[in-house]
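Run folding on both entries below.
>entry_1
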Amino acid sequence: MSEAALDWIVRVHDDPITLRVYVDHVIEKVLGCRGEEAQSFTREAQAEGHFDVRKRTQDEAEEFAELFQSYGLRTTIVRGV
């Protein structure tokens, strides 16, 4: 698979309303990471307004975005930057 095919980013936006512990839980479920790694994504979203899940095919990006959205988090999909 070419590098260009893996050039899709899922951008998960900060959610100032939802409890941080819930956002951490969603990140753990969707990305399969644990504890501190999930918390670092949440902190990045709070500081930068979003965090990015990089290097996905378009289909994978859409699937990840839908998973985050099913938990009530706002996402967008962007072509690699």
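>entry_2
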Amino acid sequence: MVEYSSAKLRQCLDASGGEAMLKDLVEYLAKALVDNPEEVNVTEVEGESATILELSVAKTDLGKVIGRQGKTARAMRTILGASSAKLGKKSILEIVE
């Protein structure tokens, strides 16, 4: 099992790497939630007004990333939105199958 610490999360949040930092943040959060962290993949797609981060996980882990009534996904989107605002950017998280 992989060990996830609050220091690593803080490092993701405080980094000044722009989109790369946001991608790392989403990847870190997703890997902490799933049973198969090696199958977590985050892809950046540049849109006209925002960066879209597409998160894909194993089919067996999809429910863990979405959560009951979408609460986990909503929490991840909230964290991403706050981090994006801090950088003066707009980012959207899409969970793909």
